[in-house]
Amino acid sequence: xxxxxxxxxxxxxxxxxxxxxxxxxxxxxxxxxxxxxxxxxxxxxxxxxxxxxxxxxxxxxxxxxxxxxxxxxxxxxxxxxxxxxxxxxxxxxxxxxxxxxxxxxxxxxxxxxxxxxxxxxxxxxxxxxxxxxxxxxxxxxxxxxxxxxxxxxxxxxxxxxxxxxxxxxxxxxxxxxxxxxxxxxxxxxxxxxxxxxxxxxxxxxxxxxxxxxxxxxxxxxxxxxxxxxxxxxxxxxxxxxxxxxxxxxxxxxxxxxxxxxxxxxxxxxxxxxxxxxxxxxxxxxxxxxxxxxxxxxxxxxxxxxxxxxxxxxxxxxxxxxxxxxxxxxxxxxxxxxxxxxxxxxxxxxxxxxxxxxxxxxxxxxxxxxxxxxxxxxxxxxxxxxxxxxxxxxxxxxxxxxxxxxxxxxxxxxxxxxxxxxxxxxxxxxxxxxxxxxxxxxxxxxxxxxxxxxxxxxxxxxxxxxxxxxxxxxxxx
Length: 476
Known about the structure:
The radius of gyration is 22 Å and the shape is globular. It has helices spanning 6-17, 73-85, 99-108, 127-132, 140-143, 155-158, 163-166, 190-196, 205-217, 234-245, 247-254, 264-278, 291-300, 313-316, 363-373, 376-386, 403-415, 424-427, 429-444, 450-466, and strands at 61-66, 91-96, 116-118, 177-181, 185-189, 221-224, 282-283, 304-309, 327-330, 346-347, 350-355, 389-390, 419-420. It has a six-stranded mixed beta sheet with strand order 2-1-3-11-4-12. 41% of the residues lie in helices and 11% in strands. It is an alpha/beta fold. It contains 20 helices and 13 strands.
């Protein structure tokens, strides 16, 4: 992921000011009951300059981290910081790929086994449902507390403006916080484009087709995606939807509007990708649960040109990436001159979400762990361990950056205000991980036409919209 500098701060300030990151209401949270339970809670300690959140110094702390592309060494660094600050506490950390499976049942029963959770991965918990059911703590107290490094600056003011709105769900609070910025797009090898294919990055879809054609002539596929997780293709399509038809297209998807997935802009994007499928430009396969890493290995070995991915890929694929590969993220190519937004429009939301269960045994300890996570020391370590852009403003200014991170920095700076964040991915996780996964899988195999894919997407959206058991987020 990319670095943080003055230009990047200005970009995100402008983005927030323009209301691009505003999250509308999830409804009156007080009207929803949380799961019961009688788990004993740690008493609050005495607040002081060194302990602004009033952490009980001898209370145990339990940390659960998603064992994915970031692994958990970056988090262990923070857990070790906590142990040093509170030596009487028994702070423990566990890594798992089964976040929801292992943790959600106890949260629902009101007796969580964790105090802070990295709610990420394919088995992540539905954050919208947790918020609605009052099962996650509000981070406001921590955000308003002095930052770890400078008591004159609050945690809130030390972070990029995108962080709090992403976790607000239409309230004045914050129920989820991310630790990094993610840049999604079309990832490629600079060396392959410039030396093997002798072409520049395609800024239009016509140019994209020409690159794929030239690659095919050399026995290289233009694209690939993980068959085990075909929803990855949407990482390259979201910004194209908005670029072709404007922000209203993504907004309609967010609010589950009746014909959101039947907009002409959506059709044009699906037709564009349908062409590369029809012309056999796509390397298929990689159908296992580890399909994403298998796809990335094929990519770093030069079997395809473009893959849909996020900034975590540089760290996740580092063991197979050859020297001089020149890992780079490319922004959305323009479909035609009538596009509503310019070339360079980018899908770039905060990433790697964390929550503290509302009924955790040590809520204050969980909040304090997050305050430490946003320290300069922990943020620099996060970058070194994962390559992720820390949420802390300026944390890695002046550092030497790997190529993928550097390209992400340049892409988001170039995007300016043209940053797109589809909130429905967070609000209605069922759509993204189940319905859309199946649809994209069939579409990318040529088993479903553009019309059939759009119909399937809209049908799934309508199902969620009509389901009385799913709380909807309304416009405010």
